[in-house]
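Hey all, sorry for the wall of text incoming. These are the two entities for the joint prediction.
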Amino acid sequence: MTVRRKHIREIASRLLTESDTRRPPVPVEQIARSRGVLIRKQAVDENVSGFLYRNNVTGKAVIGANRQQHPNRQRFTIAHELGHLLLHSGDAVHVDTSFGVKHRDERSSKGMDVEEMEANLFAAELLIPVQFLREDLEKVGALDLLHDAKVAKLAHAYQVSNQAMAVRLSHLGYLDI
Amino acid sequence: MVGERIRDERKRQNITQDELAAQVGLTRTSITNVEKGRQKLLLHTLMQIANILGIPPARLLPTSEREASVKLPQELPRQVRSWIINSISTSTGNKRQK
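and here's what came out:
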């Protein structure tokens, strides 16, 4: 199975339309709640990012995010788990430990499973929608992205980590990293 | 939790709240309250209900094993396990219950 890029972008884009989100930061918790998801945050072991629980009978779902991690990271976690919920069927409980953009390449090369890659892509599509980014890049000027400060400014506007923003920009072909 | 199990088992056997109430000597309202977890239950009443339903009383009791019927990865720290279990049980214990 390969990563379903188009499918993932469509789902993320539909959520943005439904929630009438036109500018960053994307209200990821509100979007998750609108899909009937309960959010639970707690500070726990830093190697755990979060979890997804789903009851396939009642359709109820809970997403947990580790409060110990940076708020931007928690947003990514919630988006990532929402991705699992909307894209994958599977175990009642899915726990994510040390996943994320930082580890993506390393884990992909170790054969990290496609579902994790899909959930990460979904999180990027939801939190950093390409159409928003294009608008902002027109204002900023794509060439200026060579300056870290510009990437940081964008990351701040989208409430994502600098790293997540840099990876996203690079995947979209705006930045060489 | 106990109330839910009583209700599920009662419904499975097509017994009405009225019928169950009459057999244990409670009002139908009490059975409703017990099933919704709003009323405490005497141990002997629980035994009676189990007898009427023809099941071992233990089947009506929550056990950590049953509540944690979700499979959690073995290597999770205890703190993380309890976070997950608590989150799940508070999500099913509220009024959004079906």
